[in-house]
Amino acid sequence: MTAKVKDTSARREPAGGSPPAGMRRSVGVGGALVIAASSTAATSSIGIGLGLMAGVVGLHLPAIMLVAFLPVLAIAGAYGRLNRVEPDAGSSYRWVGRILNPWLGFLTGWVNVVGTVVFMAYTTAVTGSAVLQLLGEATVHRIGGLVLDPDSTLQSTLIGLVVLFAAALVAVRGLDLAARLQRHLLVFEYAVLLGFCGYGLFAGDQPLSPDWFDPFAIPSLQALAQGMVLAVFCYWGFESVFSVGEEVRTARDASRGGFLSLVLMLLLFVFAGTAFQRVLPLGELADNGAHGLTYFGTKLAHQPLAALPLIALTCSAAASLQAAVIPTARGMFAMGRDGTVGRVWTRLHPRHRTPAVGTLLITAIAAALALVSLVIPTVGALISAAVNAIGIVVALYYALTAIAAAVRFGPLLRTAPGEALRVVVAPLLGALVLLAVGGYLAWDFYRSTDHFALAADNGWFELAVVALMLVSGLPFAAWARWRRRAPYFLPRSSGDAAPPGG
């Protein structure tokens, strides 16, 4: 029997009106900034990502973060302008589908959800590993007959799952409560990060070099491409604030929160990257990968102060789990509202008016994937396998969103050339850069080996993860189009078309 779904695609409320599905506008610009900053999870990205990037680009961490910031900033302009015209819980899923093509829009939303679920799955292991490291610092090395091992994916995942479900329950309680909790965590994390990195800049004995900030000194094109993808992954998450656009008081607050979080991330990444390179030689920086921030702390202080970066990393990982489930549940809520997925995703909590069922479903799926991922034996290998794949996927859907903005606001090239530079030209250039970088890295993965192996460093395995994220959405899109007959896929009448220029 064909599912019948009421068409809500043309019934959109203005930015200042009531959300059409009944979610509460409970967050201002401060809360929007906190949500975006928690999603990017600077402390986790610095603690884990800088070591991984150092193994790729060498002592050029500040340079690669500066270069990657430019296309991401341009694409943030596209998100902000589209959100002003049509704030929607589906954000890029909705915009790409309406402006370019519903199939592309559905796949944009799909890979966003799948990428975030994968992120949540391996971040449970990161969180659990940090908790186990904290227990080790507290001289708790065994419980009963079990020896605690921070590099055990099984132990780390099981502990991380407890944190994941706790974070989900807070998210069900409400966006305002989640933002307040994350604000306290962010203040602590940033205080520790700034304190240790600031001290490291002066206490480090590695000579400061202008080459650290020179992208042309990066050793190869392959290193530049992979470093760019890893850096884009670090910035990934700023757009989560647009997924809660229907719960932010004004569209301008959401845009400000997204932009402020991006600038904050840039400053933190460049500052931390410089400090790390002042304290740690390249070999130590690259070899400590997933434990980079913890190792950095032990080089600068003795216990108990040396444990502070580890505590900050644990707080960041836990906050990022909560920050990940919030926009993902909203994305599925928007898809359910459009009839492309089941109506179960649109069920709101009767008191808190949050997509409670979707939040718990996403959490359960991420937990199941985390358990499946135990076939990869170490936490470090798990992180490495997922980050590159997600980085390519993120580059793809960022580019599609930017292209949608360029098409949507193209008429501004004639009527308002100044604004068109920001919302048409810059996003389009950013999209081309990310597509080129992602395409080059995919080609490099393909030619890096002649066989497939279930290993984090196997290029064909990396490509298979990317392909699976994309292709897995096609049958669901086909089901939504021909079985559900979702209005999202139906041609819009001329009355539904967006006016040119916005």
Architecture overview:
The protein is mainly α and 502 residues long. The protein has a domain at 29-116 and 175-323 and 377-482: Amino acid/polyamine transporter I (Up-down Bundle), CATH 1.20.1740. The protein has helices at 29-40, 42-57, 61-85, 92-99, 102-137, 153-173, 175-203, 221-235, 240-243, 251-279, 282-287, 292-300, 308-337, 356-372, 379-408, 412-415, 417-447, 459-471, 473-483; strands at residues 142-143, 146-147. The two termini are 40 Å apart. 56% of the residues are buried.
Number of β-strand runs: 2
> Kindly, what is the distance between the CA atoms of the first and last residues, rounded to a whole number of angstroms?
40 Å
| Radius of gyration based on Cα positions | 22 Å
CATH topology of the domain at 29-116 and 175-323 and 377-482: Amino acid/polyamine transporter I
CATH H level of the domain at 29-116 and 175-323 and 377-482: which superfamily?
Answer: Amino acid/polyamine transporter I
- Low-pLDDT runs of 5+ residues are 1-21, 493-501
Please report the first level of CATH classification, the CATH class of the domain at 29-116 and 175-323 and 377-482. Answer: Mainly Alpha
Query: What is the helix/strand order?
Result: HHHHHEEHHHHHHHHHHHHHH
For the sheet with most strands, the description reads: 2 strands, antiparallel
Shape: globular
- Fraction of helical residues: 55-70%
Strand order of the largest sheet: 1-2
Region (Disordered): 1-24
Transmembrane segments: 32-57, 63-82, 103-122, 154-172, 184-204, 216-238, 259-280, 300-325, 356-376, 382-409, 421-443, 463-482
Protein name: Amino acid transporter
InterPro entries: AA/rel_permease1 (IPR002293), APC_superfamily (IPR050367)
